[in-house]
């Protein structure tokens, strides 16, 4: 049995495979969305039993909060998420402040868990600001095409310039608008770079740039509008099937972004606060792209 253990003096065990019963105050569609997130998280953890990561704990915490589970259990999971990867935890937390999508009955996750969560995230700005940047050599050591790898490093830096550590904890409406507009400007500038690379190389994956840069083009594509995403979706599918991209999760995120922008629904529960598509559509997409 796989278990989650709390930090410090907390000894409560949250069991892998535990499915909370639906509470009377939780809407059926919200319960089903949380159930999907939870089952998908358990599947991911079962596939990688020795590789717990911050996302596993974060996703289960989100599902528990939607289901109205004990806030202390949610907090336990959030603490484990931060312990597993402080920088990624804080990046995801700050993204929820920008997008305002992680909610429970109209309240933010912060309000749901309480002041202890505020204490947990109060040092996030410092963690994000003080992250040590990896040298270019770190990314180049696996690359067979150094020129292409250097282009992807530059693209990655530009893509992250106004994400992660650049997001402040509290933003005014004007600051949020300015940040989002600046990010969009950079995303638009990177689009031409992607088109050029795709045209010349196909997908710039592991065989060309190594595993440490194989995800970059896909992540940049994820930040684009769905019409551009759809244009290159088959290229990403092929890259995943050819193992040029190591994680199928990026394809799931891309598909959820596309279906969200087209229909307002998602397929794989990768987007917090977005309702799930019908079971029929979910099954159709999974069969089409051979994804569980």
Protein model, in words:
By secondary structure, this protein is mainly alpha-helical. Helices cover 62% and strands 3% of the residues. Helix 1 runs antiparallel to helix 2 (54-66) and helix 2 (54-66) runs antiparallel to helix 3.
What descriptive keywords fit this protein?
292 residues; mainly alpha; 2 domains; two-stranded antiparallel sheet; 62% helix; disordered N terminus
Topology:
Blueprint: E1 3-5, E2 13-15, H1 28-47, H2 54-66, H3 71-84, H4 86-99, E3 103-104, E4 107-108, H5 109-113, H6 115-121, H7 124-129, H8 136-140, H9 146-160, H10 173-201, H11 206-209, H12 216-222, H13 226-231, H14 233-241, H15 249-263, H16 279-289
Antiparallel strand pairs: 1-2, 3-4
Helix pairs in contact: 1-2, 2-3, 3-4, 9-10, 12-15
Number of domains: 2
Helix content: 55-70%
Strand content: under 5%
Query: What's the helix count?
Result: 16
* Estimated structural class: mainly alpha
Largest sheet: 2 strands, antiparallel
- Ranges where pLDDT stays below 50 over 5 or more residues in a row are 1-14, 100-107, 165-169
Shape: globular
Terminal-residue CA separation:
22 Å
């Amino acid at each position: 049995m796989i278990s989650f253990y709390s930090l410090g003096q907390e000894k409560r065990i949250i069991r892998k495979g535990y499915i909370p019963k639906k509470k009377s105050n939780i809407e059926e569609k919200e319960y089903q969305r949380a159930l999907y997130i939870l089952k998908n998280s358990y599947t991911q953890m079962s596939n990688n039993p020795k590789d717990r990561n911050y996302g596993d704990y974060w996703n289960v915490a989100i599902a528990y909060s939607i289901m109205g589970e004990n806030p202390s259990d949610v907090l336990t999971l959030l603490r484990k998420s931060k312990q597993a990867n402080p920088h990624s935890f804080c990046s995801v937390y700050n993204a929820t402040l920008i997008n305002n999508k992680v909610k429970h009955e109209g309240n933010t996750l912060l309000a749901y868990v309480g002041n202890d969560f505020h204490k947990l995230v109060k040092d996030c700005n410092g963690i994000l600001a003080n992250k040590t940047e990896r040298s270019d050599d770190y990314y180049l050591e696996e690359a067979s095409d150094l020129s292409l790898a250097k282009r992807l490093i530059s693209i990655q830096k530009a893509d992250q310039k106004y994400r992660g550590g650049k997001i402040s904890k509290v933003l005014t409406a004007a600051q949020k608008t300015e940040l989002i507009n600046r990010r969009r400007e950079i995303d638009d500038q990177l689009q031409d770079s992607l088109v050029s690379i795709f045209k010349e190389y196909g997908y710039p994956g592991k065989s060309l740039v190594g595993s440490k840069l194989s995800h970059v083009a896909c992540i940049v594509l994820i930040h684009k509008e769905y019409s551009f995403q759809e244009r290159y979706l088959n290229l990403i599918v092929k890259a995943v099937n050819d193992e040029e991209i190591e994680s199928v999760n990026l394809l799931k995120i891309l598909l959820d972004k596309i279906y969200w922008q087209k229909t307002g629904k998602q397929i794989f529960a990768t987007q917090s606060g977005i309702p799930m598509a019908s079971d029929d559509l979910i099954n159709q997409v999974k069969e089409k792209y051979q994804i569980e």
